[in-house]
Structures are given as structure tokens and as C-alpha cells.
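Hello Y.,

Per our agreement to keep a running log of every chain we model this quarter, I'm adding this entry. I've kept the format consistent with earlier entries: sequence first, then predicted structure.
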Amino acid sequence: METRERIVEIVKAKGPVLPVQVSKEIGTNILMASAHLAELTASKRLKISTIKVGGSPLYYLQGQEEMLQKYTANMNDKEKKAFDLLSQSKILRDAEQEPVIRVALREIKDFAIPLNVTHNDNKEMFWKWYLADNEEAESLIKQKLQILEKPIEKKAEEKIQKDIKEQKPIESIQKQLKERKEPKEARKYKPRDKEDSFLKDIMKFFEKNRINVISSEIIKKNSEIDFLVELPSVVGNLQYYCKARNKKKISDSDLSNAYVKGQFKKLPVIVLSPGELSSKAQEILAKELNNITFKKI
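Predicted structure for the entry above:
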């Protein structure tokens, strides 16, 4: 049986798997297993999770989404609280949540589906439990709007139904966290010729400094990339969350956003950029932010 077909059968039998589990099953190293898994996700045969186990995402088949709940022990306290709230309520209105819960909902992308609902020419931000069907979500959203707003007119109802079915991406109102597009697959790789020049520069920096890339996520091509990396030290390899920004000036907001992400991942932070720190960014880095390092590439 061809290797990738074997992997699909393994996932079908076991449910969500890690690259290390696949490598043992097919008798190869983690790098090769990760490469096969990346190809399977690129061809849409497998899906990849946002939740990490030991720094690695899970790979699973369509229909195995419910099994991801077995790995919620890997969430931090705020993410687990947001998970519990959403699983119980099925629908959460973003404006009604505490700021930390709003941030956490943006982190648990496997379980929280963002919805943009237009009502009376105003956009409302809601979060849908990933296993809830659209009809249930529509009913719950209309109930919330009817409780807190005027009765919904027929056109508004049709608009809500359309928004939910399309599952439109939301705009962030969090100052501490920029909302992103649906994440691309996090994977180990070496940059290909077609990949953006900024990514190639970052990978050269990692190679020069003996930094190992565990996973990566391109937020915006040639502009912003998230990494989970390992750095060698006298006590062994240390994991870091790395934010790479292709900007001439790194602002205090850029540093704060990276710091918040690092806090949620419980990891120290490295910010990489070909640009310089603004004066305010230098001040906040010196006085307020610990566990964060800026490197110019």
C-alpha cells in the first residue's frame, strides 16, 4: 500500500494523530512523516488542528472533529473557560464576553466558528460551537437579538441566515490581538521557490542560528508569519513562539500583540523583523515586557 494511503488508514482507525505516532506506524522519521501529512492536508484528504500537543498539531479526517475534545487538557485556563462557555451555550455574543474570553475564543479555532451577523445595518460578532448546526445557531442568535434589540424583521432574518451559512470571517475589536484569516496549514518545511522572499530570509536566519522550526503559519504572505521554534541551550532545546513581521518600523502594538500570543501559549517570545523598533516600542520593551526578545534580521 502506498505510504500516504497507509497514513489515511491509520488516521481512520485511530482518529486524530501526531506526526510522531505516524512515523512509528510507517517506520520512518518524524520529518518524513510530517512531509506526508503536509501533502495529505494540502490535497484536503486530512485536516489539521489549531490545538497543539507538545507543540505539534493533530491530523484528522473529516467527521472526526468531535474527537479533538480529548485534547482540551492542552489548553490554558482561559482557553478552557472559553471552550466550556461555548460548548454549553452553543452561541456566544462577542460583545458580552470579558476581554480575556474574547482573545481566547480567537485562539480555539478548532471549536469556535466566527460569524458576522448584520442586523439593522450593524454588524454583530458571534461565536458558534463547531458541532452546532446552522439552524440551531440561527435560532439562538435571533433569540439574543430579540432579547436585547428590537424584533427582527424578515429581511434581517434572511441576512442572519445568509451570514451563518457563509460563515463570514470577523473583524477583530481586540486591541491586543489582530484578527487573522483562516489559518493556513502549520507544517515543517523548507521554503520552495514559489514561497515569498520574506519567508526565505527568515529561514536563512534560522539556519544560520541553528534554530529548529517545529511549525509555522503564514498570516500574510511576504508580511507576517508565526513560528513555533526550538533554540539550543546548555540545558537542552528551548521552545519559543516567534512572530516575524516584514515592516520598516516595529511598533509597541506589534510587541504587545506578540506578547499576548506568547502568554497564551505559555512560551517566551522572539520578534523578528528587517526593520527597527519605534521609540515607544523600545520603551515598552525595556520597562514592561519580559520574556520577549527582538532581533533584526
